[in-house]
Amino acid sequence: MIDQLESNYDVAVVGGGVAGLSGALTLARVRRSVVVIDSGAPRSAAVQSMHGLLARDGMSPTELFRRGRAEVREYGGHVVNGEVTAATRDGERFTVTLADGRTVRARRLLVATGVIDLLPEIPGLRERWGRDVFHCPYHHGWEVRDQAIGVLGTGPMAAHLALMFRRLSKDVTYFTHLSDGPDSEQAEQLAAWGVRLVAGAVAAVEVADDRLVGVRLTDGTVVGLDALAIAPRVVPRAELLAGFGLRPVDHPIITGEQIPADPTGRTEVPGVWAAGNIIDLAHPVGAAASGAHTGAAINADLIAEEIQQAIAATRVGSQLRSPA
To answer: Cα separation of 298 and 293, whole Å?
Structure first.
């Protein structure tokens, strides 16, 4: 089912992932007119099952999104397939333009477009991403416990990632790749924790029977592996927000960037809100809570505006009824 796009809404949500759908569900349940516009290109497209999400462990992202869309529609919200190419302020509202030329106006804009993982340019790696090449011990670690796990040195978080995976397996190898490798403190930690250190760049990922079997170094050495963990640089899909002058800032811990916003998702631009990984790289599973929290904050913001409008209208009415 694809909803007909109407001309005006209280809130237009750009991005139909966990955060966007959660925000829309919260808004629809308080009788806000809301539309979710989604391009159908989620970060989790290659992931077959999710883990660490309470009561949904093992569910495929596709099924989660299908259920989420159905729930939003159950409460009167709309979900539309389409790519948003621009959003501009139009008086007290925003005009959102889709790639096919359709437009919609909304009183508030919620951007939940997520992030992009910038993967190393290593032949064969991208094709394994989300399968046996991944980034998080909490999402994927249990499935590769006690297996041979490699960690690619892509930046300062790599040593930390290797130590995290060492908790799940005694067979963990840290590849320095193109990085400077661990510093002296990290090297001591890795050695004490039993993580093997291999110097040299990784030239390719080795695959057999549609599964990862190792990596090949530039000197031709092949190191056998069952899984490979990396900590890629993560950047927000923020082109839409750039039009409002909102620019990403570096995350204080994780290698990547996020859009600055207050704890409710309110950005520096009045009427523009954001939710999910685009404003918090550290808690991907918390995207649902982020979307719901921001949806509630937007509703409160709209209520405050409506109350002020009602007060102004009452005052005007009182003046008109007053005797001359």
So the answer is: 9
Nearest to 16 by CA among 312, 264, 237: 237
Q: What is the CA radius of gyration of the chain?
A: 24
**Measuring CA to CA, which residue among 223, 165, 232 is closest to residue 193?**
165
Q: Is residue 305 classed exposed, middle or buried when 0-12, 13-18 and 19+ CB atoms within 10 A define those classes?
A: middle
Contact 298, 30 (CB under 8 A): no
Q: What is the pLDDT of residues 52-76, one digit of tens each?
A: 777 788 888 889 899 999 999 999 9
Q: Which residue has the tokens 């030329």?
A: 101
* Helices assigned H by DSSP within 35-146: 61-74, 125-128, 137-140
A 10 A CB-CB count for 42 gives: 18
206 vs 73, 197, 209, 232, CA distance in Å?
A: 45, 19, 10, 20
Expressed in angstroms, the distance from the first to the final Cα of the chain is 59
With a CB cutoff of 8 Å and minimum separation 6, the contacts of 207 are 124, 127, 128, 213
Q: Read off the pLDDT of residues 199-226 as tens digits, 9 standing for 90 and up.
A: 999 999 999 999 999 999 999 999 999 9
Identify the CA nearest to 261 among candidates 253, 251, 44. Answer: 251
Q: In this predicted structure, what is the pLDDT of residue 62?
A: 87
For residue 184, is it left (φ>0), alpha (ψ between -120 and 50) or beta? alpha
CA distance 288 to 51: 14
Is the sign of the CA dihedral 132, 136, 137, 139 positive or negative? negative
Helix (H) or strand (E) holding 116: strand 115-118
H-only helix segments in 111-254: 125-128, 137-140, 158-166, 184-193, 239-242
CA 277/CA 143 separation, integer angstroms:
24
